[in-house]
Amino acid sequence: MRIDILTLFPEMFAGPFSSSILKRAVDRGLLRIELHNIRDYTHDRHHVVDDTPYGGGAGMVIKPEPVFEAVAAAQSAAEEPAEIILLSPAGRLFTQAIAAELALKPRLILISGHYEGLDERVRTIISDEISIGDYVLSGGELPAMVVADAVARLVPGVLGSSDSHLDESHSDGLLEYPHYTRPPEYRGLTVPPVLLSGNHAAIARWRRRESLKLTLKRRPDLLDLKNLSAADRRLLAEIEAECPDTPDIAGS
Questions:
Q1: Please, which residues bridge with residue 33 across strands?
Q2: Domain that holds residue 17
Q3: Which residues are annotated as a binding site?
Q4: Is there a single domain that holds both residue 139 and residue 189?
Q5: Where do the tRNA methyltransferase TRMD/TRM10-type domain residues begin and end (predicted)?
């Protein structure tokens, strides 16, 4: 997969993209990340990318010309068709399902906005618009990092095992179950006996139950009964019976 990122601050990406999983994926040729400085596509000696908004108001707006030219340059750099995505508070809320959807694309072009936003005409050349949450950031650089990381993890081979991402939080709509490792006892805190039993069926049931329990406690909004099996519903009923202060999901 290739990801092109258009930004006013390419130096911000040096740390996240030069270490850990993303760096290994790039080194192995599974992922290619190219940064494009929008200022490089201006045509005045001061490389001005923004101007005051028509109609007045606070802040500055990024001009359309350098963005259009930067997108064109990124598109022409490779033959594969690209999904052009604007990182914006007005976009659809980024989820694991969207990350999986984007991971199937051969190329992504991510546009990082800044200041008060981009000239509205830029939206005529984008194919998608994504927000990473209902809060305000200084620019689209951090959202671009988030999207790139979440998508790259789903590219085959990036995590090593093809199943590594399947048990992670949000992969199936639930939060992930608790993890334990050696030693079996530490400062009086012990590992649940079922995890030491070697009974794989019992371990799978415990993990599913804990995943449901944690989701019910912390993110009940994620529980969609239509997507839960009869076994999951029974587990939820058990959990609600044991913890009467939890939301009544199974019985609703």
A1: 3
A2: 2-152
A3: 113, 132-137
A4: no
A5: 1-223
